[in-house]
Amino acid sequence: AIGDVSGKGIKASFYMTFTKGVLHSLSALILSPVELLNQLNRLFNENATRGTFISMIYGILEADKRQFTFARAGHNPMLVLRSNGDSEWLKPDGLGIGVAKGDAFLKTTKESTLKLKEGDVVILYTDGITEMLSPGNQFYGEERLERLVRGVRKASSEKILEIIVDDVKEFKGVAKQHD
């Protein structure tokens, strides 16, 4: 799972902690990502302040089958770089957690299965990466992220993560972080 809560500070931290606890509790009981997010949405709506929401991707990776079954609740698109060099941005339909109640969430949020091959790379991130500003007020952006990962896609996942973080820090320079 990866997610991003609206707002900042203690309130946002509380809602993300709440969400993490619900995910931890339900993940062993509900094996459908879209149904798990639906239950999370119900509980979140019962407990969160109106106007607060969380974007999220939640999925189950079955390594032996080389597949990732996931649902996207209004989160950033997922970048997939295939071992042959092809790339795609996956953005299946989905509403943020806390945006809608009842059937509207289920009607709008779709579950998808991504088939993977050896050497494929999947990148999940938050807007804190792509919306990082340079000292000249330019966004880091999805294009730069894709270009960077394309160049290092054969590295280990740990190394790719390190390279992304280092590149974002270098891009940011002395600019104040806003997210």
Task: Provide structural commentary.
Helix 1 (9-26) packs across helix 2 (33-47) and helix 5 (142-152) packs across helix 6 (157-172). This protein starts with a strand and ends in a 7-residue tail after the last helix. The model has no long low-confidence stretch (mean pLDDT 94). The strands form 2 sheets. The chain has a 4-stranded antiparallel β-sheet with strand order 1-2-3-6, with helices on one face. A 3-stranded antiparallel β-sheet has the order 5-4-7, covered by helices on one side. The relative contact order is 0.14. By secondary structure, the protein is of the alpha+beta class. The protein is built from 6 helices and 7 strands. It has helices spanning 9-26, 33-47, 103-108, 127-130, 142-152, 157-172; strands spanning 2-5, 54-62, 67-73, 78-81, 87-90, 111-115, 121-123.
Distance between the termini: 19 Å
Can you give the mean pLDDT? Answer: 94
Order of secondary-structure elements: EHHEEEEHEEHHH
Q: Overall 3D geometry?
A: globular
Percentage beta strand: 15-25%
What is the helix fraction of residues, given as a range? 25-40%
Largest β sheet strand count, sense and barrel closure: 4 strands, antiparallel
- Rg to the nearest angstrom? 17 Å
Structure classification: alpha+beta
Strand line-up of the largest beta sheet: 1-2-3-6
Stretches where pLDDT falls below 50 for ≥5 residues? none
Number of strands: 7
Number of helices: 6
